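User:
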Amino acid sequence: MALYCVISPGGAPGATTTALGLALTWPREVVLAECDPAGRRVLPGFMAERLAQPPGPGLLGLAMVVQPDPTVAAATLNDYTIPLAEDGHARLLHGIRDPRHLPKLTALWQPLAETFAAAEVDVIADLGRVGGADTPFPLLAAADLIVMVLHRTLSQVDAAVPRLEVLRGALDHQVPVALCVVDDGAYKTTDVQRVLFGLPVLGELPHAAADARVLSDGAEPRLTFRTSLLVRGIDGLGRRMRKTVEERAFHSGARGGARGGARGGARGGVAVAPAGGGQ
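Assistant: Predicted structure:
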């Protein structure tokens, strides 16, 4: 199946919220992998009630078994995840909690990338802010598509420029990169796109704080949450992400070509069902 990486320029643009929303609206089996070196966000947020139970080994546990054969580890990926939704089509591989564990992961990003690439389900990896020394570049290099989530503000665009330059240099344009723009800020999406190297914009999400808190903090959803502009926007983003990978090409504004096509077909229906209240 395919590996999708969701990244940010920093400054809490909503990358984790978007990645979680994508997993919950994904039409086939998917694993949301928290690979942000800054630590996990979903378990203490969207899935806060799950903290009353043992959360399982998560990313760190998987990292301990990916050598010497990532393919074998990929076959047991579900053993390290917990359900995100009641129907079980979306699962969470929760990230590290203790920053002291990060050094253990640094040397294992490459076999982890190979494990995700060999998985029989789609993997959406939330990497958080990229461009620094702790960026898991092997995951980015193995991705079928990278999407940066950012607001239409000067601070976010200014931060995104050097981080995208680092990304493009490290990957040598071999992995397609696209944008998801949150409707918050004084600049037009076309202006943001122009400054950010003409990268394609696959999604424009509303700045809907109340609905976003359902995903980020486990707030009680309103009755219309499943049909809200935010959920519909994330669902549309997911469709365009999958189409981009499946067609293995970007539109005329893209600066990178797709590495490979999708590695599997649809398996089920869409479900947005916060599991026990959550992030």
